Amino acid sequence: GEDVEQSLFLSVREGDSSVINCTYTDSSSTYLYWYKQEPGAGLQLLTYIFSNMDMKQDQRLTVLLNKKDKHLSLRIADTQTGDSAIYFCAEILTGGGNKLTFGTGTQLKVEL
Amino acid sequence: GAGVSQSPSNKVTEKGKDVELRCDPISGHTALYWYRQSLGQGLEFLIYFQGNSAPDKSGLPSDRFSAERTGGSVSTLTIQRTQQEDSAVYLCASSLMPSGRLWTGELFFGEGSRLTVL
What we know:
Distance between the termini of chain B: 33 Å
Strand content of chain A: over 45%
Largest interface: A-B, 25 and 26 residues
Helix content of chain B: under 10%
Shape of chain B: globular
Shape of chain A: globular
Number of helices of chain B: 0
Oligomer: heterodimer
Number of helices of chain A: 0
């Protein structure tokens, strides 16, 4: 199957870390992505990780991949109000062409 | 323009009418995607065009939905005999597929066309 699941909402205080989780059911995924959608805007690529990696760090962002559990997470350090958005994980399947399958999205709300 | 442009940004129509949604991709991008975003449903893949290859239509929900891409650039998504369940934001994205190099999977999205069917 190609289901990608995320929790719908996450609320954190400014300055805390945010962890957004994603689970997928198809173990043949090759690349996994995190996209960000700000209010009224299209999606924008934040970061991606190859399926043969288990961690990737990019400034305040840390991506962790657990292939055994089919679990992907995005950690945002020192969360700011500007990080408030919807975050989507996405995957490309082996043999799936160049089609990205997106999760349901997690709405992150950062409170002062 | 520099980004992906979609029109109209908002469309309200009556049930049973046909609608056309337009997408202008980034110049030179060979791949073009249509997704549908409904509340709580995430992004649903509709159709994908890549160069001169036959499009991947596997995500179109019914035969009321069709899309074309003229001259490898502008794309139009057509919904015939609209139903209330077609109400959603329709997102277009484009990407450059480099030949001989690794594709990072970065899609460039437009701001979407919000369709409301009354």
